Amino acid sequence: MTTVSNTQNSSIGTREAAFSKLQEHFEQARHLKMRDLFAQDKERFQRFSLQFEDVLLDYSKNLISSETMTLLLELARASNVESWRDRMFHGEKINDTEHRAVLHVALRNRSDNPINIDGEDVMPAVRSVIAHMSEFAGRVRSGDWTGYTGERITDVVNVGIGGSDLGPKMVYEALKPYRHSATKAHFISNIDGAHTEEILEELNPETTLFVVSSKTFTTQETITNANTARSWFLASAGDEAHIAKHFVAVSTNREAVIEFGIDPENMFEFWDWVGGRYSLWSAIGLSIMILVGEENFTALLDGAHAMDNHFATAPLGQNMPVILAMLGVWHNNFFGAETHAILPYDHYLRSLPMYLEQADMESNGKSVDRDGHHVNYNTGPIVWGATGINGQHAFYQLIHQGTKMIPADFIASIQTHSKLKLQHDIMMSNFFAQTEALMRGRTLEETCAAIEASGLNVDDVRDRLPHMVFEGNHPSNTILLNKLTPYSLGLLVALYEHKIFVQGIVWNLNSYDQWGVELGKQLAKQILDEIESADTSAPHDSSTHNLISYYLKRRQQRAEKRDG
Ligand code: G6Q
What separation in angstroms does the CA of 181 have from each of 5, 185, 206? Predict the structure, then answer.
């Protein structure tokens, strides 16, 4: 068990006290058996489930009692979750290491209420960019916007990485049933040339539109890949004047966009108060809007806005993001769970785990708190996952019978977009069965009964018995949507964003910076110079030095063989 202690936060007393109370409570709660809890309390589902609009959250299959939830909510209160939340919604610069507001909620503020930063309402600019996006997306979708030969655009390629890739890609995949039938999307992110080559070889320059998505417009991978796309395009189109028809940019950096050769008329702006991993709601969502249309894109914003309102106003005990967050704190800081699995039973949500890996781990993967002190407690979990049904045939063994606690979110929809209803019923039966199996396990008696029911004699397989018993008692949340629509996807993604926010507050972290990604980038720049000049004299540790030398030597040998 790890605990929160060092902080100079003004609520230090109450926060520590709330943690201590939870620690004391944990000494008994660690022995809770969910089977017994369900047997003792017929109302357990009603007690520990919550519905908000299209989203049902069942959190009854967790190692909690009413007292646990009371104490967890006390911790949330003592951590000042509510006042931090209000500060975020009011445009305060809560990203203090970068002196920035954190206002992805403004991007989907569908009300008439202003949101101010330094006394200036950001909403007119937000609305104006959405109008610009709508106008442009509408023209591409209708065929009014054509390529340099007058052909309609059939393929949209988002060139971006990290937050400028994962969100649009995840949403595009999730909303495929809503896409324009005459337009396809592609996502180039990897600097491995194979990614760009593989996508370009499928495309026709006359009918392809590149959306270069980069907040800074200086990201090496994106700019390099965008330049490759530009050369590929010019090899057919010839005249640079045609670039305007085929390249648009989403960025905060106007000068760099112009320098790249993109017409500033075709630049879609966003702002430094939009974090990369929270940016799919901004112009970074342009490729989504082109693919699914303005109506569906705004429905996505509407869903997120509804969740924002819920988060901003619901009492903590009925506040879905707060509950999810505090359950995560319970697993992470008391049971010592190292990871958290995201398991969608929905083909269209297959990229959600990867999206949430970034959203969560880049936000709360920190070991220095807001006051600059090293923490002495666990912060963000390792988030991972895959579509649940495939996972069942791959890694679930470890969740069921391994030595680690792996809290998991099971996510599915009641209605499917697929016509294959039998498949949906099979999938949903597995969805329900897995959380039940994880919770109940299977006792020795039940195992023996199952063996006999299968026609075998228990005595003949006695040596297998210990392996066939499941201890169960594994925690999970079930999140059930009515149907995966733009609106419900907005609800779902915003739910996770706010969960991450709450956990960041409880752990006293700035969830909105990402200094940890800088060092590798800097070193890579130096090493690129060394590789390009084949100069190995720069100081490195012996491992890095020898690896670079080995690479250069082998590359040289290969080149000599080829030339000679
Ligand atoms: C997200 C991160 C990071 C960022 C990418 C791309 O929060 O900051 O993933 O989105 O590095 O950055 P650009 O959009 O500036 O190219």
Answer: 55, 11, 18
Which residue out of 158, 216, 271 has the highest number of ligand 1 atoms within 8 Å of its CB and is therefore the one to mutate? 216
Which ranges constitute the DSSP H helices of 320-470?
A: 320-329, 352-364, 388-392, 396-401, 421-440, 444-453, 465-468
pLDDT at 563: 87
Q: What is the pLDDT of residues 229-279, one digit of tens each?
A: 999 999 999 999 999 999 999 999 999 999 999 999 999 999 999 999 999
Active site residue 347: no
Element (H, E) at 124: helix 123-142
Dihedral sign from CA coordinates of 6, 8, 13, 15: negative
Tell the residue nearest (CA) to atom 11 of ligand 1.
162
For 349-382, the pLDDT digits (tens) are 999 999 999 999 999 999 999 999 999 999 999 9
Strand bridging mode 55-58 / 116-117: unpaired
Strand-pairing partners, residue 404, are none
Ligand 1 atom at minimum distance from 162 CA: 9
The pTM score is 0.96
CB of 189 shorter than 6 A to ligand 1? no
* Strand duo 339-344 + 382-385: pairing: parallel
Which amino acid is residue 154, in one-letter code?
Answer: T
d(CA 238, ligand 1 centre) in Å: 32
Q: Does the annotation count 393 as an active-site position?
A: yes
Q: What is the pLDDT of residues 297-320, one digit of tens each?
A: 999 999 999 999 999 999 999 999
Contacts of 356 (CB under 8 A, 6+ apart): 342, 383, 385, 496
Q: What are phi and psi of 116, to 5 degrees?
A: -105, 140
Retrieve residue 257's tokens.
């966009």
In the residue annotation, 53 being an active-site residue is answered as no
Do residues 260 and 244 lie in contact, with contact meaning Cβ atoms separated by under 8 Å?
no
Amino acid at 340: H
R_g (Cα) of the chain, nearest Å: 26
